[in-house]
Amino acid sequence: MEQLMLAGGTILTGVFACVAWFWGANFVLDTVYPPRGAHAGRNILRANMIRPWLFIGPAILFLGVYLVYPVFKSTVMSFQDSDAQQFVGFANYEWLVSDAKFRESMRNNLMWLLVVPAASTFFGLIAAQLTDRIKWGNFAKSMIFMPMAISFVGAGVIWKFVYDYRAEGQDQIGLLNAIWVALGNSPETWLTVPFWNNFFLMIVLVWIQTGFAMVILSAALRGIPEETIEAAILDGANPWQLFFRIKVPQIWGTIAVVWTTITITVLKVFDIVFVMTNGEWGTQVLANMMYNWMFRGAPDYGRGSAIALVIMALVLPIMIWNIRNARKEMA
Amino acid sequence: MDNIAGTRARLVWAVNLAAAVLVVLWVVPTIGLLVSSFRDRDQITASGWWRAAFPATATSFVRAGTAKDQFQENGLWVIEGNVLEKGQRLERWGTSSRAPEAYAPGETIDLKEGEQITVTPDGHYRLTAPQEFTTTRGMRIFITTTTPPRFTTENYARVIGAEGLGQAFLNTMTVTIPATVIPILIAAFAAYALAWMQFPGRALLVAAVVGLLVVPLQLSLIPLLRFHNEIGLGKGYLGIWLAHTGFGLPLAIYLLRNYMVGLPKEIIESARVDGATEFQIFRRIILPLSFPALASFAIFQFLWVWNDLLVATVFLGNRPDQLVMTGVLRELLGSRGGDWEILAASAFVSIAVPLLVFFALQKYLVRGLLAGSVKGG
């Protein structure tokens, strides 16, 4: 109870502080440069130069402290030793290149990058196309979209249950093993099968992200001009041709956006690996490896930062692409 | 023409069927855990959740009584008892582990030295011998039983109380609500300035916001934690509120700006002409009109903060009473890996609120996704 009061108090304080700042700063500005009297024109001009910064100031402060500063600080720390005391040059990066676990993480991350965005977009596209053409489409969409609301940890529990293993001869209570055994095989501990266990982890993210892809692609599909579709039908296109030759090429832009958005999610994927295997049995990924170096046992900030910088470097091309797109749109 | 109509009907069928398969694939994992969270522990391990609605069959053994329990009756030495627990039904029984299902209930079997045993359908067994029993260890009777399906809410009661999920629920609430409200306020003003005010550097700031959208959180953790320690904030709610505010701002500003730019220019300009101050325009016109975008972001941020594990593990303490629900769930996965009744119930307590929000406000979520991604995102 006390705790909820604290939370409630924070909301009130926060809201009050925000309103006080925005209202108060505006009030002060209008008092210093009153928009009337002898210098009204000059005052309005000056006030209008300052006012945007009053509105945007708190946001800039937060973005600066919580996102921009850490990027620079991490960059510096990646060239320092484990306590961020002394500069060690490129030692952390040299260690990275020679570290087997890092190479494993890079390999896995690349596999994630290849599989998850492709699979999610593919299933999303199929789901969008199918659900747009049936009566119970909205219900179907909700169901496929639902995993979006489930935390990665929750999804981890859900899927660990699907992959559950019981010794041979016992009744399998994990769905996958039950099917597998029914087909006449012996049960497997799926999450420890070398190499393939990565794919069992990826399925979890595909399961979550497909709904996102579906929602966006479905909107794009509906935005396709009717005429192009009618023309194709008149020309005798079959449903497959209609979909792959007429519809898909018209929504490439949206597909690219979905693809890159999921790519970013993949690069940051942490929780799923963290709770399901913690990077053991050859399933390590960069984000989880970084977490281990930063927060497990004796932390090594230098190495952790170096791994974080690698993630940043992988994100960078998409960031630049996004910025260029946004600028094009504004122009 | 007949042929074309036939193809169409088949196509409609195929589409419905394919959609149904997809939906089932997507829902089944969640349903499995949901069903399991209401089953009792023994039943979860005895049979797959897809058989939850049917009686569960299990084979086990019980030990018959020993020499102490015997009594004399009509010149025979007798040991009696019952092999069943409440609710179980006897299907088969046996006397050796090699053939645990050898006999039907009601059969009488000859054992060595004139001993006989019978187990009746109600589970009553009767072991008889012409001479006195000397066993000190009861003989094993193997039974195959079926138990009718049983559903219970005990698992939920248990995880909320004993496993500390109730406290974690409060902690999650405490983290989530301020971390959703505060960024909205700050972002709304910034978005308005970026959308409707003229000032040098505006385009640059918008570009910066778009860029910051994708900065990996991993980069921020250590520098920020050290920063919080240096200014005396340490680990705690205030720190995590500020952190989530910072991390949520780019998306908030981006979504709201995109929405506000699209508002009709005439309204704002006529208000300016009528002498309204910027603050009034913002409060009286922009804020009410932007409600859908505000709602979209609120849902995003709520889901993201509620479901977050990484930021909470770093910026909050790790004492049991400080954990948020995702943290508890993670601990349980480690310590109670095989206790599915606990894990299933805990998972559903932690995802209940997001699912509720999701189904109630799906419309806004979809709208926000479209605004955030189709344009440039």
Overview of this structure, please?
The complex is a heterodimer of chains A (331) and B (377). By secondary structure, chain A is an all-alpha fold. Chain A has 14 helices and no strands. Chain A has 2 domains: 2-77; 92-330, MetI-like (MetI-like fold). Chain A is 75% helix and 0% strand. In chain A, helix 2 (40-77) packs antiparallel against helix 14 and helix 5 (137-145) runs antiparallel to helix 8. Chain B is an alpha+beta fold and 377 residues long. Chain B has helices at 2-37, 41-46, 154-161, 165-196, 202-212, 218-230, 237-261, 265-273, 278-289, 291-307, 310-315, 325-335, 340-373, and strands at 56-63, 71-73, 76-82, 89-94, 108-110, 116-119, 124-129, 140-147. Chains A and B meet through helix 1, helix 2, helix 4, helix 5 and helix 6 of A and helix 1, helix 2, helix 4, helix 5 and helix 6 of B.
Task: Tell me the layout of helices and strands.
The complex is a heterodimer of chains A (331) and B (377).
Chain A: H1 2-32, H2 40-77, H3 91-98, H4 100-131, H5 137-145, H6 152-162, H7 175-182, H8 196-222, H9 226-234, H10 239-250, H11 252-267, H12 271-276, H13 286-295, H14 301-330
Helix pairs in contact in A: 1-2, 2-14, 3-14, 4-5, 4-8, 4-11, 5-8, 8-11, 13-14
Chain B: H1 2-37, H2 41-46, E1 56-63, E2 71-73, E3 76-82, E4 89-94, E5 108-110, E6 116-119, E7 124-129, E8 140-147, H3 154-161, H4 165-196, H5 202-212, H6 218-230, H7 237-261, H8 265-273, H9 278-289, H10 291-307, H11 310-315, H12 325-335, H13 340-373
Antiparallel strand pairs in B: 1-8, 2-3, 3-7, 4-8, 5-6, 6-7
Helix pairs in contact in B: 1-13, 3-13, 4-7, 4-10, 5-7, 7-10, 8-9, 10-13, 12-13
End-to-end gap of chain A: 52 Å
What overall geometry of chain A do the principal axes of the alpha carbons give?
globular
CATH level-two architecture of the largest domain in chain B:
Orthogonal Bundle
Measured as a percent range, the helix fraction of chain B is 55-70%
Q: Structural class of the secondary elements of chain A?
A: mainly alpha
Total helical elements of chain A:
14
CATH class of the largest domain in chain A, please? Mainly Alpha
Number of strands of chain A: 0
* Lateral arrangement of strands in the main beta sheet of chain B: 2-3-7-6-5
Give unreliable regions of chain A as ranges: none
Largest sheet of chain B: 5 strands, antiparallel
Shape of chain B: elongated
Class by alpha and beta content of chain B: alpha+beta
As a percent range, the share of strand residues of chain B is 5-15%
Taking all residues together, what is the mean pLDDT of chain A?
84
SSE order of chain B, as H and E?
HHEEEEEEEEHHHHHHHHHHH
Radius of gyration of chain B: 33 Å
Tally of structural domains of chain A: 2
What is the H level of CATH, i.e. the homologous superfamily of the largest domain in chain B?
A: MetI-like
Straight-line distance between termini of chain B: 47 Å
